[in-house]
Amino acid sequence: MISLYNAIFDRLSRADWLLSTLARLIFAGTLLVYFWVSGMTKLGEGFAGLFSPSVGAYAQIFPKAMEAVTYDVTQLSPFHTAVVLAGTWAEFILPALIVLGLLTRLSALGMIGFIIVQSLTDLYGHGGIAHSETLGAWFDRIPDGVILDQRAFWVFLLLVLVVKGAGPLSLDNALRRAPQP
């Protein structure tokens, strides 16, 4: 019985392609559309909206600063605009790169940073820290806290990609195998 167990699970432990491929598939199935829809809420009108974020984008990313200037974007600094643009573009570009398996490790690191900033903004900018159900808690038998529970799984999924890479069905792998001049 032990030999059969070892034979089955030894093969599985050598299947390096499986974990990274499934991580990208699960990311695509659970988080890709979430981030893209979130990014869409930040775009301004028309094509120029890529470079001129909506007022809601500023309110989502800098809630207290927007409140302080009574939601008048023109009173914010170029720094605020740069952060909002970078955050908006990141919600489209980084998930797409992960799904395509291009620059996967770097993109996954970028997404981890994005999720950390997103979580801190939700907790301190939007006041989620005052609501225990938003923050959540580990080891409490209730696994539905938005920050500590759900986002811990998001970060773990992305850490798998940082450590293991994109896997064989990826542009990273295709580029690695391409003949070098």
TrEMBL record:
Its main location: membrane. InterPro entries: DoxX (IPR032808). It is a multi-pass membrane protein. Keywords: Membrane, Transmembrane, Transmembrane helix. The chain crosses the membrane at residues 17-37, 92-117, 152-171. One of its GO terms (cellular component) is membrane. It is found in: Membrane. Pfam families: DoxX (PF07681). The keyword Phosphoprotein does not apply. The keyword Chaperone does not apply. This is DoxX family protein. It comes from Roseobacter ponti.
